[in-house]
Amino acid sequence: MLKVVLITPAGRGSRAGNRATATRWAGLLGELGCRVTLLASDADPTAGPPPDLVIALHAWRSHAAIRACRQAYPVCPLVVVLTGTDVYRFQHSHPAVVHDSLSQASVLVGLHDEVAADIPSRFHSRLYRVHQSALPLPPGAPGPGRRHFEVLVAGHLREEKDPLRAALAVRGLPSDSRLRVIQLGGAHGDDWARAAREEMARNPRYRWLGDLPHWQVRRWMARARLMVISSRMEGGANVVSEACVAGLPVLASAIPGNRGLLGADYPGYFPVADTAALRRGLRRAECEPAFFAALGERVRARAPLFTPAAEREALARVIAACGLSCRAQRA
């Protein structure tokens, strides 16, 4: 049985994407016959018995843990998982730190199909892709209502997500529009919470419900007609996988992290931070049945990429690339 140390910058109880990824991977690695120790990146990763494999999420935030593992276990395979802020922010603001983490890695993991275009070519031979998975919505989940055309935005309120873009896009719509935006996610700071509350006060088409447990997010996905993913940067957001598996049409910012999951020719992109373009997309989805149907068909066609079995097989390939083997996968 392989002993795996899995490091994430998000601590126990966090609803951050990195913690959700780490928790899901711990389960999938367990199905592959691994014994997983899940650690926060500020813990001492060398305190326990020597592992057979170390997997670290986030090249920048987990840099100290990556260095500590490499120094303590110089021959142990080390996997570094690239997040959106690694590739699209910290690689430029702190290149020495990020590239040092990449250099320490035996294998690199990207979470969408376009990561290679945005990292130095010297790392390409180590790069593997793992698409994050999602489960189908439970049978009997409530479907969309008829009164409103509800648009879901699911993600924490922080700069990288451009979280209020959908709210801005539904301001001042004609009175016959049924568009309503439902925002889910905790605010990263008082300023974001204040901005969301002020937007609700001035915009009757917008509601912010705060940080909800995942089962409630899934109920809102079943109820919504459309999802907006307006991020300025993403490393391969799991919410895209969830939308595809749920058959929920998406309007997404035209960034590599979205294109690398939805496909380069997906018809529902809009330029980053372009409120007018997003407004046009929302109105098309509401008023043009053929456009709305095309979005739904395309997300459903992507859904097989995001099954737990596919993610588990991708993790098995990463383990094999490290020169290790695990027991047979479950059928």
Q: How would you describe this protein?
A:
- The chain is of the alpha/beta class.
- It has 2 domains: 2-133 and 307-321, Glycogen Phosphorylase B (Rossmann fold), CATH 3.40.50; 149-306, Rossmann fold, CATH 3.40.50.
- The protein contains 12 helices and 12 strands.
- The strands form 2 sheets. A 6-stranded parallel sheet has the order 2-1-3-4-5-6, sandwiched between helices. A 6-stranded parallel sheet has the order 9-8-7-10-11-12, with helices on both faces.
- Helix 1 (17-31) crosses helix 12 (308-321), helix 2 (63-72) runs parallel beside helix 4 (95-104) and helix 8 (238-246) crosses helix 11.
- The protein starts with a strand and ends in a 10-residue tail after the last helix.
What keyword list fits this structure?
Rossmann fold; 331 residues; 2 domains; alpha/beta; 12 helices; elongated
| Helix and strand composition category | alpha/beta
Succession of helices and strands: EHEEHEHHEEEHEHEHEHEHEHHH
Proportion of strand residues: 15-25%
Question: What is the name of the CATH class of the largest domain?
Answer: Alpha Beta
Overall pLDDT score: 93
Number of strands: 12
CATH topology of the largest domain: Rossmann fold
Integer-rounded radius of gyration: 20 Å
Envelope shape: elongated
- Largest β-sheet summary: 6 strands, parallel
Spatially, the strands of the biggest sheet line up as 2-1-3-4-5-6
CATH architecture annotation name of the largest domain: 3-Layer(aba) Sandwich
How many separate domains? 2
**End-to-end C-alpha gap:** 19 Å
- Tally the helices: 12
Q: How much helix, percentage-wise, in residues? A: 25-40%
The H-level CATH homologous superfamily of the largest domain, spelled out, is Glycogen Phosphorylase B
Which regions are unreliable across 5 or more consecutive residues at pLDDT < 50?
none
